[in-house]
Amino acid sequence: MQAYTVEQVAEKLQVGRDKVYFLLRTGQLRSIKIGKLRRITDDQLKEFIDSLETRTPRP
After folding, report:
1. C-alpha angle 32/37/41, rounded to 5°?
2. Would you state the pLDDT for residue 53?
3. 42 with 30: CB under 8 angstroms?
4. Sequence ranges of the domains in the chain
5. pLDDT in tens, the chain (59 residues)
6. In Å, how far are 4, 5, 20, 43 from 34, measured between CA atoms?
7. Which ranges of the chain would DSSP assign to H, the alpha helix?
8. What is the rounded CA–CA span in Å between residue 47 and residue 59?
């Protein structure tokens, strides 16, 4: 399992650090805390991305 910093996730998603913190604060993106360090695992990142996929409506 890989764990990323907020900065690394921001770079991967091509958004700012503030946006990642907003996603964490609102519960849209989950994370783990190790002491004072906040980390986002690859599973948590995948779960977030999967939640964004739009489904094609059925006719």
Report:
1. 35
2. 81
3. no
4. 3-52
5. 899 999 999 999 999 999 999 999 999 999 999 999 999 999 999 999 999 887 666 66
6. 12, 11, 18, 17
7. 6-13, 17-25, 42-52
8. 27
